[in-house]
């Protein structure tokens, strides 16, 4: 095993800065790890070895020439295949975009390149980011490195699995209802949904525009903060981007101090449907925060129980509108164009052949919810619930600094277990959806493995809009204290050095 | 409320998605279950609650009216399923026989 694979992004960046290792060496090590492990994990839809190595060498040359480089210069990153990056296909996990080469870079892709990160390739996702297991990809099912018979979460299962398989130290995702946080939770990694508008959507293929939020994925809280500072901030090309400076995220992660902080436990996110092992680790994490000087109080957000229903009306409504662009005319798949069929017939055939079941379900639900006669009862009511959820957050944040809950009610479920039961699948996003509806920020941090099945449990912290620094403050404090109690290291070290992680071939010698 | 296969077929037509008879039979009961579950939003959506369509209170966002380079024609057409004379070629758009 190559010991570079186990380093955090921050440590890699330091070693690169001191020229102890080269960016080329680091990039090659990660490409080799993908080559060695991805037959099983299936995290990547494509890799970009030649360009990655060339850009790593260019970074090494510039460093040798004395240029000032970005803090994360030479650190590899994996990008969810929903961000455009010229030169590689952007498929969104859909057959309708198979082989599509975008003519421009997403703002976030460009910021990664401008900060001298090395893009390894594009990671798998549920088709157009619709799903909680990555089983809805039109290309492959990604497997959870903790147990390859289980799902890595979704929709960003590829990015999360790549981190957990030590294929990349950093990754990028998008979170519309939990697609960064839930995969982080079930893979023992860190995932952040920034404040809506805090990260640019330009060049991110749209699912539900009022909810879609790009964000950082990493193995540690500090690494996520470093990546967040690279990708975040105002973008004039996204008209819903917030024109305000980011708070000091890295500073908050380094401070990691929760003394005197008021932490509200969401009463509604407990009880039936929550695995006992998840609740046990969650409550232990609460007592860790209390031992660090935080004040723990219970808070009620009565409308959060309606969030899932509101989400599964608002999101499909926006989906049905956004995905109308896949019309077989200007790019992507075209089926049945025989010179006789009309444009409508070709569209119908193309969309029927190119979209998978979940995308079809959501487009049809959205079409129904927006149709005259049903609009008020469905979409109109869901918009009112969105107001009520936002008010619940406002009332709660008047009392406490952050809210907390389990990230998702269970640990990783088995591949196939919920594939034919859409409602059961939707339950995975129960605790993450409210922050998408209200637009505030949230993080998932590993808080141990469930004693029931030895699989990772995620701890969610939610903070008010534009207070993303609080996520890092609390996340880093919890991470540091849990690490001390585990005898050092991060939760993923427990996988890497165990029999369950043998297939990753990253165990430290002497263990 | 019961969403029939025929209802789903009509909605799929509106959404321009060709569904096979098997897909209709498979999707209709699933969609019915989902819609029944999400209908609970009307329980709390009383008259006095204003709707929220977006998390940010934004009105119009303007940028300076400055001419900028757009993508070259060739780059835009490169991914098209069919082109002709520097344009997208599309199937017939009128109802009469081709």
Walkthrough of the structure:
The complex is a heterodimer of chains A (511) and B (98). Chain A has 511 residues and is α/β, with parallel strands linked by helices. Chain A is built from 17 helices and eleven strands. Chain A has helices at residues 9-17, 23-41, 49-64, 107-114, 157-164, 181-187, 221-231, 249-255, 276-291, 307-322, 343-354, 357-369, 376-399, 422-426, 433-438, 468-485, 491-496, and strands at residues 44-47, 76-80, 118-123, 170-175, 190-193, 213-218, 262-266, 295-299, 402-406, 441-449, 456-463. Chain A has an eleven-stranded mixed β-sheet with strand order 1-3-2-4-6-5-10-11-9-7-8, sandwiched between helices. The radius of gyration of chain A is 22 Å and the shape is globular. The mean pLDDT of chain A is 97. The two termini of chain B are 43 Å apart. Chain B has a two-stranded antiparallel sheet with strand order 1-2. Chain B contains three helices and two strands; from the N terminus they run αααββ. Chain B is mainly alpha-helical. In chain B, helix 1 packs across helix 2 (21-38). In chain B, 34% of the residues lie in helices and 4% in strands. Chain B has a domain at 5-44: Orthogonal Bundle (Histone, subunit A), CATH 1.10.20. Classes of the chains: A alpha/beta (511), B mainly alpha (98). At the A-B interface, helix 10, helix 11, helix 12, helix 13 and helix 14 of A face helix 1 and helix 2 of B.
Strand content of chain B: under 5%
What percentage of residues of chain A falls in helices of 4 or more residues?
25-40%
Biggest β-sheet: strands ordered side by side in the sheet of chain B: 1-2
Shape of chain A: globular
Q: Could you spell the SSE succession of chain A in H and E letters?
A: HHEHEHEHEHEEHHEHEHHHHEHHEEHH
Helix fraction of chain B, binned, reads 25-40%
What fold name goes in the CATH topology slot of the domain at 5-44 in chain B? Histone, subunit A
Neighbour order of strands in the largest sheet of chain A: 1-3-2-4-6-5-10-11-9-7-8
Low-confidence stretches of chain B: none
Uncertain spans of chain A: none
Rg over C-alpha atoms of chain B, rounded to the nearest angstrom? 23 Å
Q: Strand portion of chain A, in percent?
A: 5-15%
